[in-house]
């Protein structure tokens, strides 16, 4: 994976995310400003980003679960007409995330051929990873954020339409689930898949399934993670569930159980998938292409498996 050092893109990262102990550690996000209702500064970064329809753009990739969070927030906040999107092509190249000249993987803002060209506009000396999602301010022509958790929260807090994803009366439950699910599930599957030692893999895969087991128990008690209403915690879990059987089970060796082996979790995942508009945020074909990209460590020949066939449209039966 590549990195930008002082504005120049390096195809080989001199400090890869996998450490000497074999553990994968995700790099910290580098751009942490916030859209707010009136443009006042948010919890981190600088102010000057007022909530305004048509002012912002998201650079995404269908296969990236962190980008999926931002796409779901845009959907649930009914911002599809107000925030435009560009999708990078599914397979990362030596140039990192790339765009095509036209079609569904073109960049409609700058006509960039690679995402690192967009990051070069962040600042002339930008140093950091070149990741999706990126939230861009079209009015000031600057980046607002490249941290998906912040993007979900700021869209919820700054725009009034759609669902309230982080309601005041259950923030403690949402925060607790977010913390557990980020470490052990969202990032846990990557810690298993990118582990470079048996011990690092064993630790990560055990945590993935312990947490899924715990969620299975919770979903026997409540419809959603934090109670009766769909919240940010469910939004952040769903991208990992959507990719689980089609990608993580095989490509990342998360194969103790499949999502389909959990009665409550599988029904819950289908119920979310069948909520209006959610299926349009999902591209199983692209997940397979992306996660089975050629990789010297994981899939040297880049062959994409044919299965599994999964029926996401079966009734969820959760009432
Ligand atoms: N902290 C970021 C992480 C995003 C992230 O790691 N995205 C991956 C794709 S799934 C990426 O773009 N990686 C490219 C790289 O690290 O070179 C977030 O949650 O927004």
What's the short story on this structure?
This protein is α+β, with helices and mostly antiparallel strands and 319 residues long.
Write up what this structure looks like:
With 319 residues, this protein is α+β, with helices and mostly antiparallel strands. It folds into two domains: 3-158, Glutaredoxin (3-Layer(aba) Sandwich); 168-279, Glutathione S-transferase Yfyf (Class Pi), Chain A, domain 2 (Up-down Bundle), CATH 1.20.1050.10. The chain has helices spanning 65-76, 115-119, 148-158, 171-186, 188-193, 198-221, 232-251, 263-273, 284-291, and strands at 3-5, 8-10, 56-61, 83-88, 134-137, 142-145. The strands form two sheets. It has a four-stranded mixed β-sheet with strand order 4-3-5-6. Strands 1-2 form a two-stranded antiparallel ribbon. Helix 4 runs parallel beside helix 7. The protein is globular and about 50 Å long. The protein binds glutathione. Residues 1-2, 26, 29, 64, 66, 96, 129-133, 146-148 line the site of glutathione (GSH). Glutathione (GSH) binds at residues 1-2, 26, 29, 64, 66, 96, 129-133, 146-148.
By CATH reckoning, the class of the largest domain would read: Alpha Beta
Large-scale geometry: globular
The name of the CATH superfamily of the largest domain reads: Glutaredoxin
- Poorly predicted residue ranges: none
Number of strands: 6
Bound ligands: glutathione
List the helices and strands in order: EEEHEHEEHHHHHHH
What's the helical proportion of residues? 25-40%
For the record, give the distance between the C-alpha atoms at the N and C termini, rounded to a whole number. 44 Å
């Amino acid at each position: 994976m590549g990195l930008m050092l002082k504005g120049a893109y390096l195809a080989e990262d001199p400090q890869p995310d996998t450490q000497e102990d074999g553990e994968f550690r995700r790099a910290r996000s580098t751009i942490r400003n916030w859209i707010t209702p009136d443009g006042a500064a948010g919890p981190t970064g600088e102010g000057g980003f007022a909530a305004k329809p048509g002012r912002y753009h998201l650079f995404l990739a269908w296969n990236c679960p962190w980008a999926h969070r931002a796409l779901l927030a845009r959907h649930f906040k009914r911002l599809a007409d107000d925030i435009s999107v560009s999708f990078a092509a599914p397979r990362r190249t030596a140039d990192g995330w790339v765009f095509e000249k036209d079609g569904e993987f073109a960049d409609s803002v700058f006509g960039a051929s690679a995402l690192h060209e967009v990051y070069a506009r962040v600042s002339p000396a930008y140093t950091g990873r070149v990741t999706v999602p990126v939230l861009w301010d079209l009015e000031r022509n600057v980046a607002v954020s490249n941290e998906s958790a912040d993007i979900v929260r700021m869209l919820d807090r700054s725009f009034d339409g759609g669902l309230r994803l982080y309601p005041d009366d259950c923030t403690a439950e949402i925060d607790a689930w977010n913390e557990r699910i980020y470490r052990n599930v969202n990032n846990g599957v990557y810690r298993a898949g990118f582990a470079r030692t048996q011990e690092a893999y064993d630790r990560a895969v055990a945590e993935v399934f312990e947490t899924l087991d715990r969620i299975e128990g919770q979903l026997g008690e409540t419809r959603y993670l934090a109670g009766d209403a769909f919240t940010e915690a469910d939004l952040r879990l769903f991208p990992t569930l959507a990719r689980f059987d089609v990608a993580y089970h095989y490509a990342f060796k998360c194969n103790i159980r499949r999502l389909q082996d959990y009665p409550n979790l599988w029904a819950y995942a289908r119920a979310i998938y069948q909520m209006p508009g959610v299926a349009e945020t999902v591209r199983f074909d692209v997940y397979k292409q992306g996660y089975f990209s050629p990789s010297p460590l994981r899939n040297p020949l880049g062959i994409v498996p044919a299965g599994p066939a999964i029926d996401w449209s079966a009734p969820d039966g959760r009432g």
